[in-house]
Amino acid sequence: MSGVEDKIASLGLKLPEVVPPLATYQPAVRSGAYVHTSGQLPMVAGSLPVTGKVGAEVSPEQGKELAAVCALNALAAVKSVIGDLDKIVRVVKVVGFVASAPDFTGQPGIVNGASELLGEILGDKGVHARSAVGVAVLPLDAPVEVEILVEVAE
Fold this sequence. Notes:
Elements: H1 3-10, E1 28-31, E2 34-37, H2 60-82, E3 88-99, H3 107-122, E4 129-135, E5 144-152
Parallel strand pairs: 3-4
Antiparallel strand pairs: 1-2, 2-5, 3-5
Helix pairs in contact: 2-3
């Protein structure tokens, strides 16, 4: 187990298995010193724990927790490509999509769930640029989806 995975365990979490693709794509792809993940849904043991729009069927608190699940799934996708999460030099960018009720405007707070978890796990290596985008609907009626870009050691 890597130091990063030890940190994940110390937070009471477990790195999940990579979520299988829902269509024709790879969960993560390496290009040079960077790994780009596909959008990761908050899948737990192969299914979504909750569906719907944040600000309607899903509370902001739930949405933030689900964004953290997405980030953990993204780290699993990164590991599937590089083998050892200790090779992460830094998280460069996080993009979060929040399926939002029409009057919900708190997307940044939801995506904080992913950003905060990456910071807890990776420390300064987890500090990143970010976008938080409200959308009408996500695959499988997921409330949130997160993708990350990480720089890795050669």
